[in-house]
Amino acid sequence: MDIKKFLIFTASALLIFSAGACSSSSSIVDPEPEPEPEPEPEPEITITVSPKNLEFSSEGGSKSFKVTANEDWEAEALDWVELRPYNAKASKSAVNVTAVVKKNEGEKKEGVIHLRTLSGKEASITIKQEAYKEDPTPDLNGKKFLVCANSMVYYGGFVQKGDQGQNDFGMFYKLMKAKGFDVTVIDCTQGNHYLRDFKGKCGTCSSPDHLAGLNLASFDYVILSEAGSNTSTFLSDCRAVYKRVTDKNPAAKKIYINHIYTVFKNHTNILSNLRTLNKEDNVTIINCGQLAYDIYSGKVSVPGGSLHYSDKYTFVNHTSDDSHHPNPLMGYIMTQMVYCALTGEDASYADYSTLIKGCMFGSGSISYSAYYNKYYTTPAALPYTTVIDNANEMKGIQKLIPGYINYYDGGSNPPTPDPDPDPDPDPKPETISSAQDFENYMRNYASTEKGTMTISKDIDLSGVKLYSVSKFEGVLDGQGHSLLNMKITEPLFATNSGVIKNIVIDSSSVLEPNSSTTFSAVLVGENSGTIQGCKNMAQIKVSEGNWSTSNFIAPFAARNSGVIENCQNNGAIEFKPSVFSGSLTLGGLIAYGLENGLVKNCTNTGKINVSATTLSGSNTAKLGGLSGATTTTRFVGCHNQGDVYTNISASTLRLGGLLGWQEVVDDGKDYNIMEDCTVNCTVTGGCWESGKVPQWTGGNDVMSSGSMIVGRMSGQSGKSSNLYYGTSSKPVKIAGRVVNNNPQHPASKDITAENYTSYVCGGGSATNYAGDPSKPSTWQVWNATYLSASKD
User: Fold this and answer.
1) Helix, strand, or coil (residue 298)
2) Is residue 60 a contact partner of residue 103, using CB atoms and an 8 Å limit?
3) Average pLDDT of the chain, as a whole number
4) Cβ-contact 784, 679 below 8 angstroms
5) CA dihedral 753, 635, 710, 651 (to 10 degrees)
6) 96 vs 66: CA distance, rounded Å
7) Cα distances (angstroms) measured from residue 475 to each of 31, 455, 498, 520, 771
8) Are the C-beta atoms of residues 410 and 272 closer than 8 Å to each other?
9) Which of 133, 454, 498, 564 has the greatest number of CB atoms lying within 10 Å of its CB?
10) DSSP assignment letter at 91
């Protein structure tokens, strides 16, 4: 290569490299700083009101609405509306605001209340009030009422059964007086008589004319009701009786009461003519029977109610020979509906309980407290007493009443009540931390919510009236906290298919069962769910009254087909009525164990005392330290240290340290009723029939139907099911004493290692105590041993 050219090329390359190097060096700069994070946007300020309109009658009153706002807010005022509260802090939950409006004595009012947050966000609610109007209620003072009817009216107490044609002071009269009306009610009700007998020609009566001697021209209203029969002459009979009065006083107003028996028996001759009476004869139809029928058949729901109506016996009697006469609840519905029809007012009446319980009922004019015992020898699934004692239920029924005045469409399209002007209950608490929270949850949410509710502190329920929750399907966790000073007459939960756990019922609480409540317990009436880790120290106490009904009483569940585990009862059970002539099943844990039930790792130390001042008629007592009676419920790891005592007649006594009565099982299967259970107590009972010598058990004296494991078994001769009380490795262990307390023939036996096999069962057949499979039994098989350890 030419040297000159090479040098030129080399120099050029160096210049190019140098320039590139300079350029590269100048492009290196410090890195850009990280951008500052943008601030999160402020949450949007919101405020909402629900509902957006409230309407008041001229009478005024109070209604509520809800305000939800995430910033502090305040409301403008209207001079005729008071808000409580009128401002509030920001909150995630709605604030319940009450608007109070006074009576309007002028023109119609309407205004808008604006609610503003601190930053100016706004919501509004419109308030309206009707103009003043004259009171539409007629003046009923001095009015005179004639009641021509029969037992379908006086059983429920609308009138009392009294002297024919005399002044009456039954429920209708009492309600009119309570509402401020001075009226006269003449009772011409005749048991076992039809309206045709009031025509003046009763061929079967000693007094053919039931209205003889009355000044028919003096009556302002005439009220009729037919007897329990599908009378073919119903329409003509009604017209004839009404005519006897209106011929004397053409201004007299006519009312007909249609009772429940007519509806559920479908008495077509009556039902088909109700419309005719109303449209052609200007008769006001009081269709209280259709209302009751629609409630228990499920065609209409009780607004705000939670009870389960399953049959007609909530409204009518339930004895072997009387399943049709109205009871006090039905009588009250009848009474309120007539009053509502007369006045045009709604049917709400706050003091209904005092009214009902102050009346006399039935064919013998007996008191409210005695009525259930006489007319419910067969218990009602939902006793009318439970409904009457439930304020929400009664409020809801009263809302339905106006819709059944002059209603005769047979329930095909039942009327619905006007919306509740204040339908929203207090908000559901996030946790129960006060008596108000507990009452609110139990009344408004326990029967419908299926989630979990916790109790976060001990709750003092002094003065709080609690109503039994009809059904519970959720979870209530007491977290070991106590319910104190709780006074109840029925279970906290009528039925449970959910979970109730870790609740302590303090010794300051008490259950005083009502004889009209079939399934009485501190916690649950009928349990098909789970009761877990609960402790009861409350006393169960019956101290007076005539007890002639069939009842099941226990601390945790009156009837159990579910699971009860890790529970303890320390509360005494005292059943001491003045007169006992009924049937009682009572236990230290549960009263009656059903198929598939399980009671596990539970203990009773509470003493059971069942006695009565007087025994009357037929009476039965099934009493046990764990359970009064059972079918195939299993008891695993359960213990009784509570003494069991009674003075009920031995002829009907089933008395056991663990179980009172074992029901017959005959399905060809073997059942292990108990496993790893113990009993150490004194079982005291005996025969109280004068002069009768105690019967013997297994060659030993004391009782024929009382012993340490089970008082008595139903006979199973020739049956194929074996019942095992204990297993060979985990037998039932027994200790204690069996006592006959008959003063004429006293006797007692201490349980020892030598005699315990004679005191595992007080009656029935109990064979093969060791449970030896080589010695099969067609009746019962035992696995029991003597317990040498003391209670301590």
Assistant:
1) coil
2) yes
3) 84
4) no
5) 160
6) 5
7) 61, 11, 6, 21, 41
8) no
9) 564
10) -
Q: What is the pLDDT of residue 21?
A: 41
Within 10 Å of residue 51's Cβ, how many Cβ atoms?
Answer: 14
Q: Hey, which residues does 112 pair with through a beta bridge?
A: 126
- Tell me if 148 sits within 8 A of 198, measured CB to CB: yes
Distance CA 84, CA 744 (A): 72
In the DSSP assignment, the letter for residue 759 is: G
Kindly report the backbone phi and psi dihedral angles of residue 187, in degrees, each rounded to the nearest multiple of 5, phi listed first.
Answer: -95, 110
pLDDT tens per residue, range 618-641: 678 899 999 999 988 999 999 999
DSSP string of 168-202, one letter each residue: --SHHHHHHHHTT---EEEE---TT--GGGGSS--
Give the Cα separation of 689 and 740 in Å (integer).
13
Mean pLDDT in residue range 411-439 = 75
Which string of DSSP letters, residue by residue, matches 684-695?
A: EE---STTPPPP
Q: Is 740 helix (H, G, I), strand (E, B) or coil?
A: strand
pLDDT in tens, 42-72: 788 999 999 999 988 887 887 888 999 999 9
745: DSSP letter: S
Q: 592 - beta bridge partners?
A: 559, 629
Predicted confidence band of residue 12 (pLDDT cuts 50, 70, 90)? very low
Structure tokens at 298: 């499920």
Name the more confident of 523 and 99: 523
Beta bridge partners of 101: 61, 81
Residues in Cβ contact with 538 at an 8 Å cutoff, skipping those fewer than 6 apart: 486, 505, 506, 507, 508, 509, 510, 511, 522, 555, 571
727 CB-side CA count, 13 A: 11
Q: pLDDT by residue (tens digit) across 332-386?
A: 999 999 999 998 888 888 888 889 998 999 988 888 988 998 999 888 889 999 9
Sign of torsion over alpha carbons 773, 775, 781, 785: negative
For residue 241, the number of C-alpha atoms closer than 13 Å in the C-beta half-sphere is 33
Structure letter (DSSP) for residue 582: S
Q: With contact defined as beta carbons under 8 Å apart, do 652 and 617 qualify?
A: no
Amino acid residing at 84: R
The 706-707 sheet, strands edge to edge: 519-521, 550-554, 583-587, 620-624, 653-656, 706-707
- What are the tens digits of pLDDT across the range 568-577? 999 999 999 8
pLDDT digits (tens, 9 = 90+) for 532-567: 999 999 999 998 777 777 789 999 999 999 999 999
pTM of the model: 0.55
What number of other Cβ atoms are within 10 A of residue 734's Cβ? Answer: 25
What is the Cα gyration radius of the chain?
A: 37
